[in-house]
Design brief:
By secondary structure, this protein is mainly beta. The chain has five domains: 15-150, Jelly Rolls; 157-239, Sandwich (Immunoglobulin-like), CATH 2.60.40; 257-555, TIM Barrel; 564-655, Immunoglobulin-like (Sandwich); 665-753, Immunoglobulin-like. It has eight helices and 53 strands. The strands form 13 sheets. A nine-stranded mixed sheet has the order 38-37-40-35-34-33-22-36-39. The protein has an eight-stranded parallel β-barrel with strand order 23-24-25-26-27-28-29-30. Strands 42, 44, 45, 47, 48 and 49 form a six-stranded mixed sheet that branches. Helix 4 links the parallel strand 26 and strand 27 (414-420). Helix 3 runs parallel beside helix 4 and helix 6 (457-473) runs parallel beside helix 7. The longest helix is centred in the middle third of the chain and has 20 residues, at 356-375. The model has no long low-confidence stretch (mean pLDDT 93).
């Protein structure tokens, strides 16, 4: 089917067949969630499917060879994020396996797949089908099919713009490209003289020789390119430069540093600082601790470790509490003695399956876990009564509520039911709670999946309002929270997550937890960091980690904002005593951003605006850009120039006469090996005049071995050697004449002094769990991977200092 020299895009005169008009079968369906489709929608349904099929009926005038080009998207799909293979059948013939490239995890990146096939005169069927069971190696979305004839002796028969449509901001310019096209669709550099014109010069003008478009006024126009033989057109949309209007006096609610969260407790091979720098996030965890210490909970294989559930669960809780995080507790999965399915998951369907005896056992199991928690001084911050339909529905929901209240008479917010999709349980059990005299402090839902990018403000507001109306109708259920418990959007773009998180704040959704999608990365705090045991740095910070860090810097009160652009431009803002922060996500076009601060609280004081941007850097992903002097008037107008398409920025409007701004440690990285005379580095704190470094052999930094004040730069090299094989802790503070600022959240880093720093990387223990009872006399020992390790040594002793080992094997 392939030619050596194939066109890569459709011929401009090709016949077009939209997937939304094709015959769909096997679960294929029309969706409109992702942008960029050209028909009435695009076809999806190939995710986790072996039967989805899209069949086009095309008509050609003669028998012969034709090119077909399928416009498709192939973003990240669960356990598959690379190239795909999709079945192609012509007129019912046996399918052929066709490779499809995947160049982005996002599902709004559209590509063309061109094939050369033989068609007969009249109508023909062209079918693209999934054929593998649940591995998603054949998962694509389909927009349209283009068909045009093949010629043995092609000739130039058209010119075409590089793109069919362009977007540009007012006062900004973009370049265009124009190509010659032969009758087979092969493009080449144009050899003729081209002149350009605009259909509406009040909207956009174009350089008549070079083809550069400049936006004049918001609107649409056509750009025309002409040669002596041919004419081509492209549309241009000119976008107004967006404005964020911040009402500093309209405080919506106090900033909650635990607004956002992730699922699954990180193991000990994730350094503490990867957590503490983000502030007190929500750590959502199931009973019996999904993947903590390398034990899953989605199938019955975990039952082999059932005897240590209580100890392992408590250990995970202590791990989280030690860094100041909150414990969002999911009351499940099923133990082996209280399941109707023989599995930790009861069912994926919205139906009750437990017998009365199994339900009574499950309630007692939950009570036993909660009582063990209570006996050990532990208390959840939230108790999620059911997760989707995994352990049951209303009967389980009510039984778990009773279990919580019977063990913890003091208040713990109960939340649920965590349905699949916002409308999975349309009333969120709120009327049921009312009828049964139980409370539901936080109705919650799971929504957005691998094909989705971000939630728009209007969509999230609609969701929030539905639950708020139920809470108003049933006040006796004690509704205090509105929780988007699991956002499983497949996008890994930091700006997409900025959009969703900003809209959570804007709409008044009180908590939002990111789902975990990436294969082999379950230990990565919902993919904020890399822990997939495939890459050497087991806790590398991704751009999304820096987005969480940025939102963790918000303080004071969330305030009301208005944006005047498309839904992909959104923002959130907070006002505090000395500074106001505005976080925004730019729309899909480079341009200006205007920020209007109404009734700003620093009237009459010297102020400025510091600008930061999310960048792709593991060690400094929230990077300072520049500062803008601001005249302190009641109404401020700040203009930021040259903000790139789909960039994330944070603007800090602050008093000049205030302590230094935020900053963070860099190296030696937390938990790593260092030389005996290491160099300490940290990011720059704006307005700092000096820094103080403390290095101690104690985590509380008492009795420091280095206490260096007045450091001017953002680094310091030790002059006297530290002790080999000892662990040290270090911390930095920034100072100026108005006071001092500690590294974010008073974060402390550690390192171990080594004669050679190329030792194996840090790793952590898995099994046996701490204080696990009834272990075999031949117990199983497990630990995580240490990179660069060639072997491991296991030491077992009855003594805490590991003296007199009874096992010492390498």
């Amino acid at each position: 089917m392939l030619l050596e020299n194939m066109p890569t895009v459709p011929h401009p005169k090709a016949d077009i067949y939209y997937a939304s008009d094709a015959e769909l079968s096997g679960g294929a369906r029309i969706e409109i969630a992702n942008r960029g489709y050209t028909g009435k929608g695009y076809v999806s349904g190939y995710y986790d499917s072996s039967t989805a099929c899209t069949t086009f009926t095309v008509e050609v005038p003669t028998d012969g060879e034709y090119f077909i080009s399928l416009r498709y998207a192939a973003g990240a799909a669960g356990n598959w994020s690379s190239d795909r293979v999709v079945g192609l059948s012509i007129n019912g013939a046996e399918k052929e396996d066709i490779p499809f490239k995947s160049i982005s995890p996002n599902w709004d990146v559209w590509l063309e797949n061109v094939q050369k096939i033989r068609l007969r005169s009249g109508k023909n069927s062209i079918a693209y089908m999934a054929f593998t069971e649940n591995d998603n190696s054949d998962c694509i979305n389909i927009d349209k099919l283009s068909v045009w004839p093949f010629y043995e002796n092609p000739s130039i028969d058209a010119i075409v713009f590089q793109r069919s449509d362009y977007s540009v901001s007012e006062k900004y310019s973009i370049d265009t490209g124009i190509y010659e096209v032969d009758s087979n669709g092969m493009q080449s550099q144009i050899s003729s003289i081209v002149t350009y014109s605009s259909s509406n010069t009040s909207v956009a003008v174009v350089d008549e020789i070079r083809g550069k478009i400049t936006g004049i006024m918001a609107g649409t126009a056509n750009i025309i390119a002409k040669t002596p033989e041919f004419t081509a057109e492209a549309s241009v949309t000119v976008l107004a430069n967006p404005t964020i209007s911040v009402d500093c006096d309209n405080k919506k609610r106090q900033v909650d540093p635990s607004t956002f969260g992730y699922i699954l407790t990180p193991n000990y091979d994730v350094p503490d600082s990867r957590m503490t720098l983000l502030g007190p996030l929500l750590n959502r965890e199931t009973i019996p601790v999904q993947t903590f210490q390398a034990i899953g909970d989605l199938d019955a294989s975990y039952y082999a470790y059932e005897g240590s559930i209580l100890q392992r669960y408590l250990e995970a809780y202590k791990r989280v509490r030690s860094v100041g995080y909150k414990w969002y507790m999911l009351l499940g999965m099923n133990p082996s003695w209280a399941t109707s399915s023989g599995s930790p998951i009861e069912t994926f369907e919205n139906k009750e399956t437990k017998s009365d005896e199994q339900q009574a056992r499950f309630k007692q199991y939950i009570k036993d876990v909660l009582q063990y928690f209570k006996d050990n001084g532990a208390k959840p911050d939230f108790a999620n009564l059911t997760n989707e339909y995994w352990t049951g529905t209303e009967k389980t929901f009510k039984g778990n509520w009773e279990a919580v209240r019977e063990v913890y008479p003091d208040f713990i917010p109960t939340v649920g039911p965590g349905a699949v999709g916002f409308a999975g349980i349309p009333d969120y059990y709120i009327p049921f709670a009312s009828e049964n005299n139980i409370t539901l402090e936080g109705p919650c839902w799971h929504a957005y999946w691998v094909n989705d990018r971000y939630v728009t403000y209007s969509q999230l507001k609609e969701w929030r309002d539905v639950i708020a109306q139920y809470q108003e109708k049933y006040p006796e259920t004690n509704g205090k929270y509105i929780i988007w418990e699991e956002n499983n959007a497949g996008s890994k773009d930091p700006t997409d997550w900025t959009r969703s998180m900003a809209n959570v704040i804007r709409t008044g959704v009180t908590q939002n937890i990111k789902g975990c999608l990436e294969p082999r990365n379950a230990n990565g705090m919902s993919d904020l960091i890399t822990t997939n045991v495939l890459e050497q740095n087991p806790a590398a910070r991704r751009p999304l980690w820096w987005v969480y860090y940025m939102f963790g810097l918000m303080s004071g009160y969330y305030v009301d904002i208005i944006t005047d652009s498309t839904e992909d431009f959104t923002a959130a803002a907070c006002v505090d005593i000395n500074e106001t922060k505005i976080i925004f996500a730019k729309n899909d076009c480079e341009g200006l951003v205007h920020i209007k601060l109404g009734k700003q609280p620093y009237l009459g004081e010297s102020i400025k605006a510091d600008l930061y941007k999310i960048v792709y850097s593991e060690n400094n992903g929230l990077k300072y850009q520049y500062s803008i002097p601001v005249k302190s008037e009641e109404e401020l107008d700040i203009t930021i120039d040259h903000v790139g398409a789909n960039e994330t920025w944070m603007v800090v409007v602050k008093k000049i006469n205030s302590t230094p701004s935020f900053f963070f440690p860099i190296g030696p990285d937390d938990g790593e090996a260092a030389t005996s005379k290491p160099t300490f580095t940290w990011s720059k704190a704006q307005d700092a005049t000096s820094y103080t470094l403390r290095v101690s052999m104690n985590k509380d930094l008492s009795n420091p071995v280095i206490y260096e004040k007045g450091i001017i730069d953002t680094s310091y090299t030790v002059t006297s050697e530290l002790l080999l094989e000892e662990t040290y802790y270090w911390h930095v503070s920034a100072e100026n004449e108005f006071g001092s600022t500690s590294a974010s959240n008073n974060t402390v880093y550690s390192f171990k002094v080594k004669a050679n720093v190329n030792v194996p990387g840090q790793f952590g223990p898995y099994l046996p769990s701490v204080n696990a009872p009834n272990e075999s006399v031949t117990p199983e020992f497990k630990w995580s991977v240490a990179y660069n390790a060639t072997s491991y040594r296991l030491v077992i002793s009855k003594n805490p200092d590991m003296s007199d080992p009874i096992v010492n094997v390498a």
